[in-house]
Every structure is written in structure tokens, then in C-alpha cells.
Sequence to fold (379 residues):
Amino acid sequence: METFLSQLIFGLQRGTIYALIALGYTMVYGVVRLINFAYGEVFMIGAFVSFFLVHAVSLPQPILVVLALLIPMITCSLLGLAMDALAYRPLRQKPRLAALITAIGVSFFFSNFVSYSSGETVRSSALAAFIIAGLLLLYVLGVRYLNFPVKATPNFKPVKFVIPIVSLFLVGGIFWVSRDLLVALRWKGSSFASYPVERLIAIEKIPLYKTVYITNIQIMNFAVSVVLMVVLSYLVNRTMTGMAMRASKNNKDAVALMGVNVNRVISITFIIGTALAGAAGVLSAVTYPRLTAFMGVQPGLKAFIAAVLGGIGSIEGAMLGGIIMGVAEQFAIGLLPSSYGPNRIDFTPLADGVAFAILIVVLLLRPQGIFGEPPREKL
Fold:
């Protein structure tokens, strides 16, 4: 009984983190029909923003706790707004595959940017990500917003490739000239990988049942997650903005005819989704203090599976899917042996496969998810 309760508490804690990220996936997909795979990296950036804030600021703990959560959420929301404006909005009328590839590219860019800055991996991949991202940025700014002519002419059809090629050389040249500055700006110190939890809150264990306990950090995680989910539910179901989001999900053209700025609604959706991912990053950093440039890869994938499990596009489904994913993974960690046989083989890493096993089962039995609607037959 004690083991069950203990694993349940840790599973719920893990699940609330997945649920917050999954809400971002499901909100954006519900409005734009886009899977934004960069949420895992936004999660990571939120953790690092909180990390630097806690290191840099000396304030009373209650104030620091609030700022360590709010500042990353604001930063990530601005990042989400920029992602939508620069990467996704220009592709809104293009095939979905173009936006999906762009989302993967944005994800690689953010993770490699932090990796390059921290010196974690080979720099060539990070430099390639810089160049590709700069190319896309200049192309979007030049072609989509500044209206540079890129249409083919009878005499010179490859004109439409001039701006991307020039952008490639321009960005590559900038980084080649400033390579020494980039090296000088790299973050240093062993504290880079460890979140200073003790500066934020003193860890206390509160007994629940016999040997079962809950920490004040877990209580804080539960409280923050529940508050954010309640606020989100109120926003989506009880406000005009939420009504516009739900209407845009069904028919964006009709909503636009009613005078609603659909692009503004989509931008607000990105802001909310990335703010929730940033909050999840802070909660994860406090719970699991080790920070790396690729810490968002696994949570991002598992949160996506949670959104699919609950029914992609369903707010309630994302919440429930995240909880199910976290509890299932935690129970798998508890059941798998950590030292098996004479060679003391650790099987607990196999718990990461539980998420993908759940995805396979869901796709086979109920592809639309728990709260998802089955596809309508066209007559």
C-alpha cells in the first residue's frame, strides 16, 4: 500500500508536467491544425530562464518563487508570439507538411542554440542550425513582410532562389566573423547543469501514511498546475477570447467574416501554449534539478503522446492524457528491476518505452483519443 501511494504521488507530479505541455499541443492543433514540436524546447528554455533568474536575483523566497515562475512564462509567451509571426504565419495557407517541417526545424534550432552556448555537443551541428534558422528568418522577413519580388521571370526563372542563397552566405559570413565573440559568450561553470532549488525553497517532507510522505515541492507543483489548468479552462470556456478560439477551431473563415481577427486569436493561442510549456519547464527543473540543452526532447514527445491519448484538440483530454502518462510511467519505473541478475542490469530506462506502447495501443483501439471525436463521413 505504501509503495502504491508513493508511486502514485510521484506519477501525478510527473503527469501534471506532461499535461501542461500537452495543453500547448492540443490548443494550437485545435485552432491551426499544427503540431508544434518546438514545445519541448520551449519547456527547456523556461527552465533555463528560471535558472538564471534564481542565480542572478537575491530576494525573499516568496517573491523569488513567484518571479521564478512568472518571468519564464512571460519570456516563453513572447517566444511563442515570435515563433508564430516569423515561422508559422507565413506558412498558414501552405500545405500542412511545410508547417510541420518548420516546427521540427524550430525545435532543432532552439536545442542546438543552447547546446552551442553551453558547449555540450559538436559545434558544427549547432552552426548548421544557426545558418538554417537565419536563412528561414531572412527569407520570411524579406519575402513575406518586406514584399521583395521573387517571382520567376521569362529570362531568369531561378530568381526566386536568389534571396535564400544570399541569406545563406550572409548568415554564414556573420557567424564566421563573430565566431570569437560566440565562444566568449559561452556559459561556463558546473552550476550550469544544476538548478539551485535551495535558493528557491527549502525542501520539507510531510508525512501522509506510515512511510509515505509528500514534499512541499510536490504540493507546489500540484497547486501551480491545478491553478493554471483552472484558469485555462475558464479562459477557454467563459471568455470572448476563448469563444473565438473555439469558433476558429470549427470554421476560421466564418469567424473572420464576423469581424474577428483570426491571426490575433492564433497568436494568443501560441502565447498561452508556450507560457504553459515554460511553467512546466520551471516545475520540472525544481523537481529534477539537472538541466541540459536536450532536456525537453523526452517530455515534449511524451506530452505529444498524452495529447493524442486524450484526444488532440481537447483541453480536458490533454489534462487527463498527461496524468495517465505520468502515472503509467512512474509505476513502470517502480515495477521494473533496477539491478537484475549477476550483471546487475538496470531495466528502469525501459519505462520511457511505456509512452510509446500506450501510443500504439491508442492508435489501434481508439485513434481519436479518449475525448476525441471520430472523423465524420462525407456524404
Notes: Confidence is low (pLDDT under 50) at residues 121-129, 141-160, 181-192. DSSP finds 15 helices and two strands in the chain. The CA atoms of residues 90 and 144 lie 6 Å apart. The longest helix spans residues 2-32.
